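User: Show me a protein chain along with its predicted structure.
Assistant: Here is one chain, sequence first, then structure tokens.
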Amino acid sequence: MMKTDKIKNYNQKVLAILGTLAIILVIFSIITISGIAISEYFRFNDYDDIETGILSDEKIDELKKENKREQVISYETPMLIDTLNSVYIIPVSHKNLNEPEDINGLLNIASKSSSYESKDNRYSREFYGNYNNVIIYNQKSDITKQLFIKRVNFNDIKTEYFSDDIFLMFNAAEKDTYKDGVINLADFKSLYIYSFNQKKLKKVANDNMDIVSYHFLNDSKDIIISFGVDKNNDGTYDYNNEPTVIKKYNYQTNELKSIITDNINSDLQKTLEGS
């Protein structure tokens, strides 16, 4: 009898321990899932903030008739780009007003983060935000320069450091190709390259295509660019369902050409189709 009681007590203790472990596991799972949900919430909210873009030309025209505006300029923290010559950039962002106001008012100031990356004989820095222009400020001469003279939107400023030059690079949209009322990253973008030495801004674009990505060729200022093809002509590139093409951009000549021949492209397509 005593042996039976001991077995029962032992089983009860084991069940109690297993029950406690199960409760702890459930609590841990709930905390983990909640943490992931909260992180995703803030991640997507941050992404939405980057994607707000600037108002389309059509919307701007409507507001002008009422002498109103819905967005105001906001200057980001100055960033030292050229240490030797004491040259800074001041990214220009914008804030969306809760409701339209008369064309007057003050500006807000905010700051964003940056990242660094080393590549071959050069290195790069990257700044993220919701930008519509860049001011270049020369500390020595106390002169500021506005880089863009037209309305654009971009969320990324990349600096590439070469032994003989510094590039500012932007994937910027300038037209509401998607026709959703704003100019943002859903629209077709062009690659802009500003040379500090030449003090010149170059534009790289392919008609009715979107810039997807770009990479410098080894030990070169030439660039391999991936363009997204808008096959359904809806004014935006769908990464999941629409193809990309590869082009090479020659920085010196401004030429943009395919590196994959028509014959290879045709053969690959026929192979895919099984013909």
